[in-house]
Amino acid sequence: MQLTLNFDAGLVDAYPTCREYVAHRVHHQGRPQKAIAADMDYSPSHLSRKCAQSPDDSMRLTCDDLERFIETTGDTSPVLYLVEKYLTDHDRIAELEAELARLKGQK
Q1: Which of 3, 9, 17, 1 is nearest to 85 (CA)?
Q2: Rg from Cα positions in the chain
Q3: What is the pTM of this model?
Q4: Are 70 and 78 in contact (CB under 8 A)?
Q5: Among 4, 25, 70, 101, which one has the highest count of C-beta atoms within 10 angstroms of its own C-beta?
Q6: d(Cα 60, Cα 98) in Å, to the nearest integer?
Q7: What is the Cα–Cα distance from 83 to 6, expressed in whole angstroms?
Q8: Which among 33, 13, 31 is positioned nearest to 23, based on CA atoms?
C-alpha cells in the first residue's frame, strides 16, 4: 500500500482572497490581458482596475465579473480556490498524519 500526501502551500495560502487569485489568473492564462478583457466586454484598464481593487477606486470585481471570467476563459480554478477556502477541513492534515503514523506502525 502506498500513500502520498502533498503538503505544498495551497491556493488559499498563496492568495488571501479570491480576487487576488483571479488577478493572478488573468495574467497567467497564456492569452494577452487585453484579449481576456475584450472577451469580458471590458477595456484592459477597466479589468486591471477591477483586479487591483485599490482602496480609493470604486471599481470592484463582482460575482458577475467572476462568472464572466469563468465563462470567457473556461478557467474554473477560481471555483477550486473557493472550495479549498470554504469547504476543506484544515484539521484533516493532522488526521491524515496520525493515520499515516498508525499505518507505518503496523509494518
Answers
A1: 17
A2: 19
A3: 0.71
A4: yes
A5: 25
A6: 43
A7: 17
A8: 33
Distance, CA of 89 to chain centre: 17
For residue 10, what are the CA distances in angstroms to 14, 43, 76, 82? 6, 31, 16, 12
**Distance from C-alpha of 71 to C-alpha of 68, rounded to nearest angstrom:** 5
d(CA 81, CA 53): 19
Q: Residue 21 and residue 44: Cα distance in Å, rounded?
A: 18
Three-state helix/strand/coil letters over the chain: CCCCCCCCCCHHHHCCCHHHHHHHHHHCCCCCHHHHHHHCCCCHHHHHHHHHCCCCCCCCCCHHHHHHHHHHHCCCHHHHHHHHHHHCCCCHHHHHHHHHHHHHHCC
